[in-house]
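for the recovery benchmark. tokens below, seq after
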């Protein structure tokens, strides 16, 4: 065993800064996967109907804690960090009230129609949401951005780059002190922007965008379980993401964007966007960092950079991974449905130590 190829890795217990837990039986089926690995997670508000008020977020939080307890994981094993779904009608008062609860940590911007359950999203950010953004800037509440334009004239693969020009730059010119997280970054354009921009900006990066390029969608046939939004991009973009995630920059941190859908809605003529990665999130990230020869950077990315940006304490526990083959199960139970995890049947190089 040489020093260059460590066989185990112990890091401070990580957090997931972008997660879809859903509700009801799906929540009950998936929450344990996240709680086993992560101390905290930023929980996305794109339920049906979306979580648009502080009161709804508090109720949703109770349902999550109940599901954690039902899963037998112990009371302090997992802390959900709640978010609000920004709409054209979100008021400054709603933002202040949500912030004052101490358990609602951010506000999510979905451009209307950009992705799963985003119909109630924002139609024109600077026109309709200035009061809410003003309040967030003042109290230091981050705006989490799904950074894709929805203009049908823009090629699907260019929507992140065009969003930077059309929305991100004008937004940050008008609100230069607003904390912004560019969620699930997928392009070199995004990496360059986040690396160089002035002011409080950061980005989350998923494991699947670090491990796969868009060829994965079509390898041997059309593979719906690799379909997510923003969609996987060219290899040059994947390489830029790996470079960013493993760099010294504190602006990049872990966000799985794990998004469970029933198997029947993925394997469908009009399949849902979203990859289920909560089951094996840290194994996927460790495999990506290990392949880049930068396992030494995983702790900063997974456990340090996120809390620093959000102004939260670093966790106290630890998590250990070992270099042992992990074969991803073909399916998982999800209420009355089946759930297919990303890369089902494939073998990863790293396993979690229980
Ligand atoms: C997410 C979902 O299913 O809720 N899907 C996805 O492809 N990532 C929505 C989102 O984060 O865009
Ligand atoms: Zn998401």
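predicted aa per position
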């Amino acid at each position: 065993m040489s020093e260059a190829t460590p066989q185990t890795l112990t890091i401070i217990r990580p957090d997931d800064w972008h997660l879809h837990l859903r509700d009801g039986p799906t929540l009950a089926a998936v929450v344990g996967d996240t709680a086993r690995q992560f101390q905290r997670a930023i929980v996305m508000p794109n339920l049906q109907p979306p979580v648009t008020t502080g009161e709804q977020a508090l109720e949703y939080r109770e349902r999550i804690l109940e599901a954690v307890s039902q899963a037998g994981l112990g009371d302090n094993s997992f802390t959900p960090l709640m978010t609000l779904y920004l709409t054209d009608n979100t008021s400054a008062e709603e933002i202040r009230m949500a912030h004052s609860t101490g358990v609602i940590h951010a506000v999510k911007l979905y451009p209307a129609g950009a992705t799963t359950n985003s119909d109630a999203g924002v139609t024109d950010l600077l026109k309709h949401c200035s009061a809410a953004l003003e309040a967030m800037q003042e109290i230091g509440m981050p705006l989490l951005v799904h950074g894709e334009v929805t203009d049908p004239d823009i090629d699907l693969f260019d929507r992140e780059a065009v969003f930077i020009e059309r929305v991100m730059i004008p937004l940050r010119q008008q609100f230069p002190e607003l904390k912004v997280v560019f969620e699930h970054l997928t392009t070199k354009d995004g990496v360059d922007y986040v690396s160089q921009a002035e002011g409080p900006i950061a980005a989350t990066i998923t494991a699947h965008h670090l491990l796969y390029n868009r060829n994965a969608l079509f390898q041997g046939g059309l593979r719906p379980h690799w379909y997510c939004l923003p969609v996987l991009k060219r290899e040059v973009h994947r390489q830029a993401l790996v470079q960013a995630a493993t760099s010294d920059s504190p602006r990049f941190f872990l966000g799985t964007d794990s998004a469970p859908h029933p198997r029947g809605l993925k394997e469908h003529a009009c399949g849902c966007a979203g990859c289920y990665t909560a089951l094996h999130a840290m194994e996927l990230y460790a495999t990506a960092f290990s392949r880049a020869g930068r396992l030494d950077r995983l702790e900063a990315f997974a456990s340090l950079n996120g809390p620093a940006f959000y102004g939260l304490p670093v966790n106290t526990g630890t998590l250990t991974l070992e270099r042992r083959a992990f074969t991803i199960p073909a399916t998982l139970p999800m209420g009355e449905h089946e759930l297919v995890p990303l890369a089902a049947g494939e073998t990863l190089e790293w396993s979690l130590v229980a």
